[in-house]
Design brief:
The protein has about 575 residues and is an alpha+beta fold. It is built from 14 helices and 30 strands. The strands form seven sheets. Strands 20-19-18-17-14-11-22-21 form an eight-stranded parallel β-sheet. It is globular and about 75 Å long.
Length: about 575
């Protein structure tokens, strides 16, 4: 037995509470190394010695390239739990606890793994609507200036001695006039890239966090947009850029003018004097861009300021949450303070961090509810677009991704194929719409909250920034792809298992390039399958699924034992 591969981390994604009497416990082992795995748990303040323990058989939930992942649930009256594991294969039987590995379990309860107390305050508090979210991500400058139209014309506006730029002329009013289009797609959440006053067209160099950019419109129009979205059952999330500001932010202008005498000198991180406003600057900035000086979010005045920003737009416009830019370069205590401030005024406000890598430390319940899942995007690109992965490798990478975090966190991860910061997925597919369709299908059936970047449903392509932030092609819509995206969203919202169900591989066939998986919740179990070859494939259903498959849309029973799966076709059946 490969003991060096065995891993359990208490009070982490390997051990977390879902309510005051339920704890999920996970264990990692080497792949195909353990035949039986059991969890033994008891009351850590039991009045007897040795304490009473209960055995729960652990289920192998998934496999990645190197490891298997086992899981069990403790659901008992205990509020204080201690536990250990027993692992068996043909060669040996070992016990695993905080004490280490042993052939007999002789150590005391204090040397078991511990869940000291299941406190309600420490249970993950993710808004219930997050796992049911289907997001539409809009880059405001590029979306619309009127009903199904965009002027697609650059302009510069001047106000109070400052300049504001746009490339395509998109506005808040334009979004308002196209809420029916957004609603008809079937989404129930809109995420807007920055809309606050900023010099550049992308608005990531904020000048005034309490004002809407003049190119986009007014505060009143944001309030109108939010109310109209809510009327149509759609949430609104705004982009918060608090890691850095723009060069024309009043506090930075004061530092440039007054140097060390400025009352705002400590608002900026590693500010040096005299200030050298050159490229590269002699102060910290976002990616060495002198126009984006880095804010000192460890300064209480800065913390208080941005907590007020977070609260203000909830109170003024009734927004539903924030996507937080460059979240991994900001200190953790800032995010804890921001979360507390926002949640005090809106208990179900959603907080999504822009973190491209593993984000476990930000997802412990005290900072973010979700992060942007670039891992999902990368796996989909390698499998559907670039065809670098086998079906088995795809399954392994998806499983490894899902077991990074507690399952409730994985359900709320913001999944996407592309964003405003990366090439369009259809470009990765070299314009192959079949590959793109399959990726969209998987986006809508995988664990996590799917997000569609504006214009993906219209087949926008582009590998460079001006291209992948291109104007919405209102006059040249791809109605076939638009309808396909609508159908996939409808499917997602119609089947509760796709929003909150567990994920298990059902089968895979490397030769036929076919993959099937199960999503299962209390109300429902569904089978999802697709194939990525360029030819029609016939597949003999495993016996356990025969006679149990009902088409998700028609409700008709599939009575055959053999399935025919067309190229780029995804199928979903309800299992009964």
């Amino acid at each position: 037995m490969q003991l060096e591969a065995v891993l359990h981390i208490p009070l982490s994604g390997f051990a977390y509470a879902t309510d005051e009497h339920t704890v999920t416990i996970r264990l990692r082992t080497a792949r195909n190394d353990v035949e039986k795995c059991s969890l033994y748990y008891g009351d850590r303040v039991c009045m007897r010695e040795p304490i009473d323990v209960t055995e729960v058989k652990m289920e192998k939930m998934a496999s990645s390239e190197l490891f298997d992942y086992y899981e069990a649930e403790i659901s008992d009256r205990y509020t204080r739990v201690c536990y250990y594991f027993c692992l068996e294969n043909k060669e040996k039987k070992v016990f695993y606890s905080e004490y280490g590995f042993s052939e007999k379990m002789n150590c005391s309860r204090t040397q078991y793994f511990q869940f000291p107390y299941i406190r309600r305050e420490d249970i993950l508090d993710i808004p219930s609507w997050a796992k049911e979210m289907v997001m539409y991500h809009i880059f405001p400058d590029s979306f619309a200036s009127g009903r199904e139209s965009l002027k697609d014309q650059a302009e510069v506006r001047k106000k109070d001695g400052k300049e504001y730029k746009s490339n395509h002329g998109g506005t808040l009013k334009g979004i308002i006039e196209n809420v029916d289009y957004i609603k008809n797609l079937g989404v129930n959440c809109v995420y807007l890239n920055p809309i606050f006053a900023a010099e550049s067209y992308h608005k990531y160099d904020t000048i005034d966090y309490f004002e809407i950019d003049p190119c986009f419109g007014t505060k009143e129009e944001l309030k109108e947009l939010c109310a109209l979205l809510h009327k149509n059952g759609i949430k609104l999330i705004l982009d918060g850029v608090f890691n850095h500001c723009g060069a024309n932010f009043d506090a930075f202008l004061d530092v440039l003018k007054n140097g060390e005498k400025s009352e705002y000198k400590d608002w900026f991180y590693h500010m040096q004097f005299p200030v050298s406003y050159e490229t590269p600057p002699n102060y910290e900035a976002f990616a060495y861009v002198k126009e984006m000086p880095k804010l000192n979010t460890g300064n209480k005045a800065v913390v208080d300021y941005f907590c007020k920003v977070g609260v203000y737009w909830i109170q003024y416009a009734d927004i539903d949450g924030w996507r937080l830019d460059v979240a991994n370069e900001i200190n953790h205590e800032f995010w804890r303070a921001f979360r507390r401030a926002v949640r005090e005024v809106k208990k179900d406000a959603l907080l999504i961090g822009e973190i491209w890598e593993d984000a476990g430390i930000w997802l412990l319940g005290d900072q973010f509810d979700s992060t942007m899942n670039y891992t999902f995007s990368n796996i989909c690109r390698e499998f559907f677009a670039e065809k670098k992965l086998s079906v088995g490798e795809f399954d392994e990478k998806i499983n490894r991704m899902l077991f990074r975090y507690p399952f409730p966190v994985s359900l709320a991860q913001m999944n996407f194929l592309d964003t405003h910061d990366v090439p369009r997925f259809l470009s990765y597919c070299n314009g192959n719409k079949n590959a793109f369709r399959l990726a969209v299908f998987f986006l809508m059936t995988c664990v996590g909250a799917p997000s569609v970047f504006y214009g993906d449903e219209q087949c926008i392509m582009g590998t460079e920034e001006p291209q992948y932030r291109a104007a919405m092609p209102w006059q040249n819509r791809d109605m076939e792809m638009e309808q396909y995206v609508k159908e996939c969203i409808k499917m997602r919202k119609s089947l509760p298992a796709l929003s909150k169900g567990t994920y298990h591989k059902a089968f895979l066939d490397e030769e036929k390039k076919l993959y099937g998986f199960i999503r299962k919740c209390k109300e429902q179990e569904v089978l999802v399958l697709f194939q990525v070859s360029d030819e029609k494939q016939y597949f003999e259903l495993p016996e356990e699924y025969q006679g149990r498959l009902y088409d998700w849309k028609t409700g008709n029973l599939f009575i055959e034992s053999k399935l025919c799966v067309e190229p780029a076709q995804g199928l979903v059946f309800i299992l009964k």
